[in-house]
Amino acid sequence: MKYIHIPLEGAYNVRELGGYSINNGITSFNSFLRGDSLEEITNNDLKLLEEYGIKNILDLRGDIEIGDEVKIIRDNSNLEYKQISLFGDIEKAESEDITKMIVENPEEFLIEVYIAALSEAKSAMKEVFNHIAKCEGGILFHCTDGKDRTGVISALLLDLAGVKKSDIIANYQVTHTYIKENPKVIEQAKQYSEGLIYSKPEYIGNLLKYLEKNYNNAESYLENIGVSKENIGKIKEKLV
Prior knowledge:
CATH superfamily: Protein tyrosine phosphatase superfamily
CATH architecture: Alpha-Beta Complex
Radius of gyration: 17 Å
GO molecular function: phosphoprotein phosphatase activity
Pfam families: Y_phosphatase3
Order of helices and strands: EEEEHEHEHHHEHHHHHHH
Shape: globular
Number of helices: 12
Organism: Methanobrevibacter arboriphilus
Helix content: 40-55%
InterPro entries: Prot-tyrosine_phosphatase-like (IPR029021), Tyr/Ser_Pase_IphP-type (IPR026893), Tyr_Pase_AS (IPR016130), Tyr_Pase_dom (IPR000387)
Protein name: Tyrosine-protein phosphatase
Number of domains: 1
Strand order of the largest sheet: 1-4-7-5-6
Strand content: 5-15%
């Protein structure tokens, strides 16, 4: 069983990282899924994920964003749940300044926050990738919309696998196609800026340029923040 877009009842933007062209093959199916909020996940969804080979859920959101879905997952499945707040350090910045930037220039905000994820959230990033390395079986990592935090992690994983930058950008771009179907996302965007729901190529493209300029590639970045070569190797094995 292989999907590109996973047909879940309670989520809009759960997708494969498998199937992308790399040297001598493609990225593995059934190993990494990227996703949005699982707050409306159903028992049918949990069954499908387990049948698909997923054994781990990695939640990249902060405490305030998490609801009853954790209990639902733990009570109704054998999936291992782990939360690591990826933007925790970044969110300690003045909330008024962040809100002002979101409203006035959402494009600049997204570009800056993606780069800040690499430069200012190294501790959380290290924890995320060390956790991924030790997971047995497939993993679904997600945030609220499956665009920003999830998009950054997806870009690093695909770059680590050797996926072309154009494909990494394309993987990010399709996000808007799915999340615009979620009425909660649209309503939330109206409160701040509708620009937040777009997944323009330059958003993730600037992240990739920053990564190449400062670290050469994802593997060097992970080594720089303290992820061991052994753990990087384990992740690469899962990817390919």
